[in-house]
What we know:
The chain is α+β, with helices and mostly antiparallel strands. It is built from 13 helices and five strands. The protein has two domains: 2-121, predicted glycosyltransferase like domains (Thrombin, subunit H); 128-248, no CATH class. It has helices at residues 10-19, 74-84, 88-99, 106-112, 126-138, 141-148, 167-175, 181-189, 191-194, 197-205, 211-214, 223-231, 237-248, and strands spanning 2-7, 26-28, 41-48, 51-63, 67-72. The protein has a five-stranded mixed sheet with strand order 1-3-4-5-2. It is elongated, with a radius of gyration of 23 Å. Mean pLDDT is 82; it is low at 87-127.
Amino acid sequence: MRITARYDSAPALARDVVEQLTRGGLLVRTEVPPGLELYATIELEIACGADAVVVPASVLQLFPGLGVAVAVDDAGRDAIDVLARGGADASADADTAAAGTAGAGPATARRDRPTTGAPAGGAPRAGSAVEKIQQALRGDRDARAAVLRDPNRTLHVYVLRNPALTLDEVAAMARMTTISVDVLRQIAERREWGHRPEIAIALVRNPTLPPPVAIPLLAHVTPADLKQLAKDTRTREPIQRAARKRVLG
């Protein structure tokens, strides 16, 4: 699948390179194509005036009515940067954008805005969403915790893809009632997490996780925890019934 970001000038593209790509991603302001899924690998076409470049990209987030956040590798960023610097004037404008000068008036801002359907008014900042996703994917322990506290629960799932994520963090996430249900489901479905007794019991006791997902995890809790679940009146009824059945054999 290919999605296209269209810019009317090199300075417009240079601005997004400075404000977004240098921070890890790019928001392509377009309608979300039917069937496009998170983490999918796609072709990203950057069209700037009469020139264009196509690079591989991966989908970071879908924003219906706003666009698609994507990540590109170093080679892709270099290719886009070359397109953004397609002349002496473009390079000068890119430097101006990087310096964050405040002298540009409203007419310049309108001229430099990409022609890809960016919404007006209170739309979320693209850079903010992309930055948080990159923080989840690459940040340290404190950064991951900050993302998990974010009220935008669609961001939480990206923490699970951070290669530095530890088992104790996963166990803590399994106990959280404010976390995305998708995160809890993914923890439950991964054998290296959901089959660990300390994580399985945390998920089973978490009222946010639906009982149909929690009940199979009873096979991985300790016998002592299973008995406690079977007799504890605070246990959700479907889970308690399933625990009793296991205890009685």
